[in-house]
Amino acid sequence: MTVSLKDVAERAGVSIKTVSNVVNNYRHVTPAMRTRVQQAIDELGYRPNLTARHLRKGRTGIIALAVPELGNPYFAELAGAVIDVAAEHEYTVLLDHTGGRREREILVSQGFRARVIDGLILSPIELETEDLRGRDHDAPLVLLGEREYDLPYDHIAIDNVAAARAAVRHLLDLGRSRIAFLGARTDRVNEPSHLRLRGWRAELTAAGLAAPDSLVAPTGGWDHADGAAAMSRLLDSGAAPDAVFAYNDLIAIGAMRVLSERGLRVPEDVAVVGFDDITEGRYGSVTLTTISPDKQTIARLAVQSVVERLLGTAETAGTGGARELRADFRLVERESTIGRC
């Protein structure tokens, strides 16, 4: 049996408006009245009709999250965090997979689901500034990642350069000096791999060490196989690194597999640091040292940004309408650099 506001009002002996005020968490309701209504709600098992509530406001109650790869553990974990935060705001999340393809990112950003969603959280790879400049869909758009578009859309990221420098500094402090970078992209100049490469180079330079191209191994993708192939090419070239900083954990794990096959010990012969702190890195035969972005904060900032834009409460004074929001990161030390304790 469906329980209505009227049923709750009759049980509590109050008006329907009072019940509505409690359900919507209006602050002017007295504590005693709130307790009285909440008791009736609990006794009857009332659940608000969120769909109807959103429709009364001219909304659908749905936020879309579009990421390059749903199969990538980092994006899967981020999606889970976004779903949890959205639920706190009584929103449902629609997941979309762009494959990191520009045409798909353009389609998503231009609002092809305009009648379905209230806002969009997008993590682009190939999208260009001009692709967004003519956007005519008024649903709030929030961008994730390091690419900067100089457009009036909120942007949430960690400092990839600083994070990369922290990873390299950790390896330097362990006495490593020939630190390779796996996962460079030569076709993009403003995406996270380029920024992490910049941080790798900056920290080595600051330590008075060379940062030769011979220690940079590009990859065509971001999976285990890409890391394994890059590590094989690097070893075959005779570069002989004593440490590896990988673009992400999947590349790092693939690299560690090749090192083991070649008879090289991790971390004794080659220390390895990844990026993303995915669950898989915590349970291998050698656990992975990694940069851990604060995924919970990224998710919370992204959802709050959409909600604030919908409510018109976003603080944008002096920003040209856009906000740069930063999430933190930390270095998690594990066996791939410090060995087993």
Structure description:
By secondary structure, this protein is α/β, with parallel strands linked by helices. The chain is built from 13 helices and 12 strands. The strands form 2 sheets. Strands 2-1-3-4-5-11 form a 6-stranded parallel beta sheet, sandwiched between helices. Strands 7-6-8-9-10-12 form a 6-stranded mixed beta sheet, with helices on both faces. The chain starts with a helix and ends with a helix. 40% of the residues are buried. The model has no long low-confidence stretch (mean pLDDT 88).
What would the keywords be for this entry?
12 strands, 341 residues, 16% strand, six-stranded mixed β-sheet, six-stranded parallel β-sheet, single chain, 13 helices, alpha/beta
